Amino acid sequence: MESTEQLKDVLRVAREEIGRVIIGQRDVIEKALITIFTGNHALVEGVPGVAKTLLVRTLGQVLGCPSQRIQFTPDLMPADILGTNVFNLQKNEFTLVPGPVFTTFLLADEINRAPAKTQSALLQAMQERQVTIDRESYPLSSNFAVFATQNPIEYEGTYPLPEAQKDRFLLKISMTYPEQEEEISLAQRTLGDNSPEAVLASGQVKHVIREEELPVYRHALQGVLIREELIRYAVEIVRSTRKHNSVLVGAGPRATQAFLLSSRANAALSGRDFVTPDDIRAMAHPVLEHRLILRPEFELEGLSVAETIQNILQQIAVPR
Q: pTM (2 decimals)?
């Protein structure tokens, strides 16, 4: 059994190795690692060109896991992502040709461009880590993680994700433009042989662990202490979203679970074996932002979900 100390070392080295490819975006890298090491999925929102695909490929390289990408389009069918049975003339039988969902880290690019039938097929894979093809179930990797992206600036011709499906994502990760100095560094590296893609392709980024070790380190997270009063603090935050005057639909019990799991992983990333109130507060926006629906009248007044979450946090006493 791996210790919490070993887990902290693995997370630290993994963050450093990913940072050799992904310029800036430290917060994004940490949220992605939290998603994987808690065995969950993330909704990634960002404009084109901020390295969403490269992030998932790099995660696979560093953690020793295969990765795939699916570009979602309005004509994408469930069989296109799950696979299909094809008749094999040599064997005189049907043989499964697995789709791209048979991987460990899956980038579902622009998931809101696919129709509901295709979205629901991916939903089963996320929830059950198995898929059903021609009435037969096939298991996926126990480490299967979906990073589903949405483009925040183009909603024409899209199929918005149902709230129940959004709730199955542990976190919402916002990828923004790099800072000026980071973008200058990216531009300089692009002109030589040291571009992020070249660094990844050259094998300079090392494997930190093997795929079969992931469940062991995930179990080691249980060694990170979270006090009873902090559990109550997280529950109080979630329950407050259900009665806040600007919120039409608040967060459910999955949000409480997401708070506790992600806060524990955040503590390990910070090099601690105990959770503090700051860990829970740090997870408030990524845990709650995609789960809350504001009342229309407050949206018309320009109130944002982020402002609502901040207001909720200010109203609740922080445990000592």
A: 0.92
